[in-house]
């Protein structure tokens, strides 16, 4: 599997990128055959700091996650898109963020036009900076990368508060500034998705959030509407949260382990984590 994310996105298929938020979720997604991985800000902030994705995490917090997740994704041969929030400040911060994420091994960075402190997409009350200010940030991001294969994804959160027309105008500006992919967050109907798909000739990102503001569509449907990349950022931590709550309640309330059918086998999890390699190495070098 190639780490060249631009090449992957140049094909005819729409690629589904599952959200990963720690190294176990990354391993599982990669071993399930993911072609692109998405380091979700919501899940990463929650798992690393235990706080809401509301502008609390710093550049240093998020860079530390990219630095451990991107190399593991590379071991599996899978590109990692990393959430870079607003770039953590002005143009100097954006340049520093892009260089840091690229050096850490990410294949792409997502930057959004929210004001600070940012809020999770698909929530109400998000505000955005002036469009020309964000266009400058995108230009700085593009100019700051060392390799053109490191992609810059421009996201606007303008739809919810300023309407679809404003969001499309912003996307056009960000495209002119050099963004490689365009990400219009939280459209509210299939009709809006269709309008977005017809409005641009650059690769488009759709964000499929269970319980969010956008209708959930499969990749085939999104492809017909003109999208190239489908993010499923929340599916991993929502599934894990449900399973953990159910299992922990069984242990705490009933004093029992859950049924084996509801758990991954210990042997399978040992394999997931790479214990066979450990045992093989020990066997090879153990004293005879």
From TrEMBL:
Query: Which of UniProt's keywords are assigned here?
Result: Lyase, Metal-binding
Q: Does the keyword Lyase apply?
A: yes
Task: Decide whether keyword rRNA-binding is in the record.
Answer: no
**Gene Ontology MF terms in the entry:** lyase activity
Query: PANTHER family annotated for this entry?
Result: CARBOXYVINYL-CARBOXYPHOSPHONATE PHOSPHORYLMUTASE, CHLOROPLASTIC (PTHR42905:SF5), PHOSPHOENOLPYRUVATE CARBOXYLASE (PTHR42905)
Supply the name of the protein: Isocitrate lyase/PEP mutase family protein
């Amino acid at each position: 599997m190639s780490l060249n994310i631009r090449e992957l996105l140049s094909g005819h298929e729409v690629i589904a990128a599952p959200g990963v938020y720690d190294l176990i979720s990354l391993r599982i997604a990669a071993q399930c055959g993911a072609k692109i991985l998405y380091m979700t800000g919501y899940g990463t902030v929650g798992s690393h700091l235990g706080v809401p994705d509301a502008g609390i995490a710093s550049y240093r917090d998020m860079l530390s996650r990219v630095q451990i997740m991107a190399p593991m994704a590379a071991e599996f041969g899978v590109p990692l898109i990393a959430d870079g929030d607003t770039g953590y400040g002005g143009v100097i911060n954006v340049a520093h963020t892009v260089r840091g994420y690229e050096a850490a091994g990410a294949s792409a960075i997502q930057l959004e036009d929210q004001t600070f402190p940012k809020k999770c997409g698909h929530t109400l009350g998000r505000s955005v900076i002036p469009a020309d200010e964000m266009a400058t940030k995108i230009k700085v991001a593009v100019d700051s990368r060392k390799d053109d294969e490191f992609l810059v994804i421009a996201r606007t959160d303008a739809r919810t508060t300023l309407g679809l027309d404003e969001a499309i105008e912003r996307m056009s500006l960000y495209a002119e500034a050099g963004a490689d992919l365009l990400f219009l967050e939280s459209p509210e109907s299939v009709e809006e998705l269709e309008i977005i798909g017809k409005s641009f000739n650059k690769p488009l990102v759709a964000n499929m959030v269970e319980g969010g503001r956008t209708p959930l569509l499969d990749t085939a449907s999104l492809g017909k509407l003109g999208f190239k990349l489908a993010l499923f950022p929340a599916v991993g931590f929502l599934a894990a949260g449900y399973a953990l709550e159910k299992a922990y309640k069984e242990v705490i309330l009933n004093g029992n382990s859950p049924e084996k059918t509801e758990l991954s086998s210990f042997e399978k999890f040992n394999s997931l984590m790479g214990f066979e390699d450990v045992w093989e190495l020990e066997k090879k070098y153990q004293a005879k």
